[in-house]
Amino acid sequence: MVMVGDLTHLLVPTNIGVSRRVKATHDGVQLALWRPMSDRTKGPVSRRRRFMKLAGMTASVATNYARSQVKGVFQDADTKARDKARNNARSGELIAQTLGELKGAAMKVGQIASVARDILPDDLIASLASLQRDAPPMDYEVIAAQIERELGSPPELLFQRFDRVPFAAASIGQVHRARTDDGREVVVKVQYPGVDESVDSDIAHLKLALRASGMISVRREAFDGFFAELRDRMREEVDYTHEAQNVRWFRALHADDDHLVIPEVVGERSSGRILTLTYEPGDQLSELDEKGYDQATRNLIGARLTDMLYRQIFEFHAVHADPNPANLAFRRNGDVVLYDFGCVKAFPQPDAAHYRNLMRAFRDADHDAIQVGMERVGIQRPGAQMDDRAEFYEQIRSSFGPFLFEDVVFDCHTAHGHEIFTRMMVKALRRPKHFQPSAAMLFTDRAQTGQFMNLVKLRSQVNMHRIYMKYLEMPQQGDAGFSERMRGVPARPPV
Ligand SMILES: Nc1ncnc2c1ncn2[C@@H]1O[C@H](COP(=O)(O)OP(=O)(O)O)[C@@H](O)[C@H]1O
Ligand SMILES: [Mg+2]
Predict the structure, then answer these.
(1) For the chain, how many structural domains are there in total?
(2) Ligand 1, closest atom to CA 342?
(3) Of 237, 268, 302, which residue is a domain's last?
(4) Is the CB of residue 63 less than 8 Å from the CB of residue 212?
(5) CB 234 within 8 A of CB 109
(6) Which atom of ligand 1 is nearest to the CA of 21?
(7) Is residue 169 in a domain?
(8) CA triplet 324, 328, 333: central angle to 5 degrees?
(9) What are phi and psi of 41, to 5 degrees?
(10) pLDDT tens figures, 78-137
């Protein structure tokens, strides 16, 4: 949950592309700009076929590796290295291709894993990042049957109107617009059958394949911790009851913010695999040019997004951790709409205090305190002696400088902005003697990295420093005034 790991991720845009969104015409009539029928999926891949494909992937990857090991005995160092690179690329492609074909949990895990630059090799990151984000839509019959199984009646009886053509693609389901009997316009997110059952098995296979590929060099505990974190979030993500509680929680957390729109749950039309929410329209990030959003509005939006993120980290200790631009929409008055609470990372108060201490230490250029902070947060191995400590910390600090620690308006879109991030060494934290990946950081990293990419695309000019400092000064556990501050923060409701 720290920005340090983040910066290494910032260098390469991840899979955060703009999702397909089905265009609805005005007048409520929907145009079928959706894919042709031939491209549609009749139903989910059977469990047996899924298992066979994943097992086949693991076997091929393992064979690749074994073959290169044997060959390596007879090769000189250069040829060996070249062979290893070729082998990694081949295995990476195979893994990404299999996950992409299987869709569902497998693909989603692959996409999330593509931000883990400190765990996975570059070849694999590149392949995973290319995974198409959304599954192709399923036939209406599959969707209607899933709704009836979950809610006890077909959509036509549950809603006054239910649009058969999906309104938007979701990663493990699809979204249809509808109207309730009491006249509310809603969206109904329907999870594809079988997705939730395959989470554990899909993740276990991916983990096995990566281990067998010979591509992973991090220590076993770090690798296991990373996958345990992925699995925990994925289990939550496929449980729409959990997501409904997150939506309610974040509505309560941000209740005093008139410029952040969070949908409302329609509980009586929701279940573990169906989530019905009030329809909250807005313009997608990719549409802002065409709609002529001016610079002042882009800046206002950028400032609001920045404020929202740091407020979640420092004040709420819970972060919306799926920063895909499709999960955001905007309005001309600068209001921000936030969708998709399937992936929320909540962290304990002491972690928030460690993070706060670390970032204050960076602000003050206090190297001893930075080291303590890095260790507490879990990315620096305890007691690691670094000969180049001062130089290394200063490098990190100077990358934060312009947008966190200098009182300037930061133009996210400029070459200068990019340069600051690319200056950071990609492999800085790949020094296993000194650093280790921290599973606890994975999703907050993802949120911050994705957020920055969104600000770049928004072309916002924001004084990040002022917003950041407001939250960095906020009392954390151990500070005077902490309990008074927490009194106003709604607790996470039980699921
Ligand atoms: N309440 C809503 N109002 C309008 N559009 C929505 C709403 N909720 C979701 N959407 C649209 O549906 C898309 C998919 O929903 P989302 O919850 O993000 O699914 P997933 O968790 O699979 O990514 C979103 O990217 C957004 O464009
Ligand atoms: Mg989404």
Answers:
(1) 2
(2) 21
(3) 237
(4) no
(5) yes
(6) 27
(7) no
(8) 150
(9) -105, 130
(10) 888 888 888 888 888 899 889 888 888 888 888 888 777 778 887 788 888 777 666 678
Give dist(CA 379, CA 439) in Å, integer: 9
Q: In this structure, which residue's CA is closest to atom 27 in ligand 1?
A: 326
Residue 277 CB less than 6 A away from ligand 1 = yes
Backbone phi and psi for residue 186, each to the nearest 5 degrees, phi listed first: -135, 165
Is position 101 within any domain?
yes
- Residue 109: domain span: 42-134+196-237
Residue type, 271: S
- What CA–CA distance (Å, rounded) separates 306 from 302? 6
Q: Whose CA is nearest to atom 20 of ligand 1?
A: 170
Amino acid at 80: K
Question: How far apart are alpha carbons 456 and 153 in whole angstroms?
Answer: 45
Q: Is the CB of 321 under 6 A from ligand 1?
A: no
Tokens of 329: 């929409």
Judged by DSSP in three states, 231 sits in helix
Q: Is 21 touching ligand 1 by the criterion CB < 6 Å?
A: yes
User: For 368-412, how does the pLDDT look when each residue is reduced to its tens digit (9 = 90+)?
Assistant: 999 999 999 888 888 888 899 998 888 888 877 777 888 999 888
Q: Are residues 55 and 5 in the same domain?
A: no
